[in-house]
Predict the structure.
Amino acid sequence: MDVISAAGAWLIAALVLGIAELAVPGVFLVFLAIAAAVTGAAVFVLPDLPVAAQLGAFAVWSAVTVLIGKRWYRDYPVEGGDPMLNDRSARLVGQVVLVETALVGGHGRVLVGDGSWPARGDDAAVGTQVRITAVVDGAVMVELL
């Protein structure tokens, strides 16, 4: 295999891995793409590099780039846009809702959006506005406004 085709193969592999990184979730293939690009550059510089050495270089550079990436993401974590995105209960805290079934003896139901939730709190009549303070065991804890 001549130098151009061997180096070109590594650079094409880098390009394919880079495109695959865009198509699949997560951040991992980009590190392999960088390793393939470095290996391709090494084959240009060292044209007599045997295939076994090329694969070894790719393995070493893959490990190096993954470790650098791991350290980078540990030192500079990616912040999400909404920390409570998948925590429906936490999103309810602070909402003002209406009592659907009177709270008597500390138990009743409130309207939350288009649904009805069991509620616990001070006694309140139907139609009273209350604020959700917490969610415990599937029931919302409410307080009078």
The first strand starts at residue 96 and ends at 104. Residues 3-75 form one domain. The chain has a mean pLDDT of 88.
